[in-house]
Amino acid sequence: METFLQLVAKDLYSKIGNDLSRTAIVFPNKRASLFFNEYLAAETDRPLWSPAYVSISELFRQLSPLKSGDPIRLVCELYKVFREETRSKETLDDFYFWGELLISDFDDVDKNLVDADKLFSNLQELKNIMDDYDFLDQEQEEAIRQFFQNFSIEKRTELKAKFISLWDKLGDIYRHYRRNLTELGIAYEGMMYRNVMEQLNTDRLRYDRYVFVGFNVLNRVETRFFQLLQDAGRALFYWDYDVFYTRLPLEQKPPYTHEAGEFILRNLKLFPNQLPETSFDVLRKPKNVRFISASTENAQARYLPQWIRETREQEDKLTREQVENSSTRQLVNSPTEKDTAVVLCNESLLLPVLHSIPAEVRNVNITMGFPLAQTPVYSFINALVELQTTGYHAGTGRYTYESVLTLLKHPYTRQLSSHAETLERQLTRDNRFYPLPSELKQDAFLELVFTPQNGIAALCSYLTELLREVAVLYRQEKDVEDIFNQLYRESLFKSYTLVNRLLSLIETGELSGVRTDTLKRLLNRLLTSANIPFHGEPAIGMQVMGVLETRNLDFRNLIMLSLNEGQLPKAGGDSSFIPYNLRKAFGMTTIEHKNAVYAYYFYRLIQRAENVTLLYNTSSDGLNRGEMSRFMLQFLVESPHHISLEYLEAGQSPQQAREIEIHKTPEMLQQMFDAYDIHQHPKAFFSPSALNAYLDCRLKFYYRYVAGLKAPDEVSAEIDSALFGTIFHRSAELVYNELTANGREIRKEDLEQLLKDDVRLQAYVDNAFKEKFFHVPLTEQPEYNGTQLIHSKVIASYLRQLLRNDLQYAPFRMEGMEQDVRETMEIDTLQGKLALQIGGTIDRLDSKGDTLRIVDYKTGGTPKTPENIEQLFTPADNRPNYIFQTFLYAAILCRKQSLKVAPSLLYIHRAASESYSPVIEMGAPRQPKVPVNNFAFFEDEFRERLHGLLQEIFSQEETFSQTEDTRKCEYCDFRSLCKR
Questions:
Q1: b (16+ CB within 10 A) / e for 545-564
Q2: What is d(CA 236, CA 230) in angstroms, rounded to the nearest whole number?
Q3: Confidence at residue 765, expressed as pLDDT on a 0 to 100 scale
Q4: Neighbouring C-alpha atoms within 13 Å toward the C-beta of 68
Q5: What DSSP assignment string belongs to 643-698?
Q6: Could you report the per-residue pLDDT of 389-423, keeping only the tens digit for each?
Q7: 341 touches 370 (CB < 8 A)
Q8: What pLDDT score was predicted for residue 460?
Q9: Closest Cα partner for 822 from 835, 834, 837?
Q10: Mean pLDDT over the full length of the chain
Q11: Residue 18: band (very low, low, confident or very high) from pLDDT cuts 50, 70, 90
């Protein structure tokens, strides 16, 4: 395969010889010059004078006395002009992103040498004198006619009136803006191009000869520039194309112009090619073409190692055949790597692709930059900006927990502050939703981070200072060789430069009036668009590149990833203030231009390749519609080659979760024995929750009470049902603590008086929230969010309902609130007799007459009626576990005092009716129910079954297995472990 640049190098050397010192070779981009230089050197074994290499944009910058302006400053200068010309009071915040759009339009106007006076003339005048515009061809006249058909000046709307009033000012804004920039000695790119053309003197050009290589679509400035150099006899032109999409379509019946060849045909007419057409009939030569569909973006990257191996095998086979056919043939070193390109239509695939490149590929050249947005410094800056903007409430002087936690978890904070991890745990444990800066400043670095900033200048200074602190991490010499260390150091420097640039613009007054949210968007745009260049030798190794970097380059083995509609060509046109028909009429860039450009890139890239593999993603999500690019479809129809249609299939089958069953080993049983033996651990006990966990799911019991696993603590602004119940319990406890301060008797009149005092009731709830949820002193006033406020009001209403129920039961005696009870039991195990404790915390104990009532508050759920005691110990979906808990407490209290024990469940949310009774009832369905007013009748059977349950837990024959009822797994903390 002979590449286009090899053809040019050979032809140029044959025409000019060894001395190219007075020759400048101009490429669309700079990358091609590195390859071209190698090909030119290969043309002779003698030294030669190298030509100058320059890209077209660099050439115009060299020829212009104006300097390229900073993009942010250019918008600020335009804003000044806009304010002067329109007398508008629009802020820079509102104008900024619209200003970028306007500069883009002015850039296009200048690059296409549009007469701005005529374009921006009064629309009425434009319509009236349209016939006098002799510079318009027939197609352009039709475009203007269509514009006025669709845009009636006579029929005014508010939006149309605003557009017309601004349009009439655009000419003045354009001229005034260019005048101001000229005085400042700066320019946007189009203005610089136009300025060069207005002052160009070909006799004063630096080089004798300018060689233009591999251009495609030319704007009018470039076309005019080429013409002037051609007329002066100082230009040579090399166009790369293929007759497949230039001459052959014109010979069809009926003839047509191929999209990829539209602009090349124009260029060939104006500027004849130095190479003959015979050099450009290569697309029809034999090729191996494959179209492969993949189910995801990442699947394409994962296919890469297989494709590289297959390509290497083909190359090795070809090399062996060449050796057999010609023993004198010299082999090129690593032909596969140098002649292989991986082209990413979706540049976000860069990281998956880099991770997929196999170790046997010794050299890789990455032409795309590494996105700064994928480095730690980007997330650090983002976290800092969020902390000081949306994460800080100036009114209360507090930060939000989420913004603080993001920073405390960041690797930079962890490395620079020894207190970060401890502080994070403390905030999580204490549910600190809105921490104060003072409680966060636990060392010098955290003091720097958690100092509130006021204003955009202070925010930028704050960022630069913290970035300097982070730079300390990369000063250690030992890490110099680490590739990621180098990459992150470079990204840190780049970020510091960008933030510093914003700070200098603020200090000089260019951005002084900008709001913080605008600065935030601007900074984010600068950071997300920045790339960190990879260092390497471009002409060596396998190339990983974006579509634009492929210009002028040819590869024998080519794989293109994400060749989807919407990726190539890119979806949607650029926004513009100039209507489409006017752009078309005045010869400006339109969406058709861009589609034609991408069509050319696609066909030019595959025309010399011998092994072409094109992949696309079939999944439709977001902007991706799961369709192959129109260019693939077009090539499928037009191609003279056989195209293999294939699809990627993952070489794996879905894993089935296996059943988990844990057998009790002697070591495990000994561990359990020791853990619950009261002689070794006097405070250890089996709670109703532990026993219920065993009855619901033995494996859950094992994870929580044998292995000692538990869900990590986390702060959540949401209040789940368990926390809701905890806050209600504490509120009720506070109420009755106060009512029993001077005696345990609860009287009707005390309850009636309290029910009338809403403020006092709400105070109990607020104090419960402070203790159980916000974890702040009672003197501190926490901030409720909307949901928390609703929960607070609901709990207050439940508290009133509780008091109304107690009012009907009063008078009674309060025996205890949140009272711990324990009882020792003895069971036989393989390790000998085990003395263990059962027990827990009873919500409330009260007595009236000869009855002691155990009251368990329930703020959710539905009351259940067990048929018998056996049902409490039988694992099932409807097993009444709340009743099991209350009965366990009743069994303990039966032996501790002489009163009748009545276990009760008070469902607060169902207790509004006057006839409601919290007493537990038992009985079979559709049979009379027996109230459990005296637990003594059920105690013996309950204790017998409880003893059997404890024996079973310590039995070696019984395993810890998963529950059969998978509904219990839905909200289990250990669901991810057992894969249910």
A1: bebebbbbbbbbbbbbbbbb
A2: 8
A3: 94
A4: 12
A5: EEEEE---S--PPPPPP-EE---HHHHHHHHHHH-TTT-TT--B-HHHHHHHHH-H
A6: 999 998 889 899 899 999 999 999 999 999 999 99
A7: no
A8: 95
A9: 837
A10: 88
A11: confident
